[in-house]
Specification:
- With 108 residues, this protein is mainly alpha-helical.
- The chain has one domain.
- It is 73% helix and 0% strand.
- It is built from three helices and no strands.
- The longest helix is centred in the last third of the chain and has 28 residues.
- The protein is flat and about 60 Å long.
- The relative contact order is 0.14.
């Protein structure tokens, strides 16, 4: 089984970028005032567009769009589970390390 590192990188890049843009846009639109609310709405729209690109690359829009990417730069179909597991493991490891650090600081 050959791992396509470019597809794995791009799939996680688009997923995390979309989620971060949507979350940042929600906070900016809710807590901002004036022009910053417009920026927040723009971030939400950009995040949603990138999320649709991610769904297309993952092959999750087959029922809506007849074409599915084959062997192209947007073919994320085999990499999503590996990427999510890798990111999940990184987050769990960071949280454990942070917990140990805070525990050591508080006890010292």
């Amino acid at each position: 089984m050959e791992v396509n590192y470019v597809a794995q990188f791009l799939s996680m890049l688009t997923l995390v970028f979309a989620i971060a843009s949507i979350v940042a846009g929600i906070f900016t639109a809710y807590f901002g005032s004036g022009k910053s609310r417009g920026v927040g709405v723009g971030l939400i729209i950009i995040g949603l567009l990138v999320f649709v690109i991610f769904l297309y690359g993952a092959g999750l829009l087959e029922s809506i769009i007849d074409t599915v990417p084959d062997e192209g730069i947007l073919d994320f179909s085999g990499t999503i589970v590996q990427g999510v597991v890798a990111i999940g493991g990184a987050i769990v490891g960071a949280v454990i390390a942070l917990g140990i650090f805070l525990l050591a600081i508080m006890k010292a």
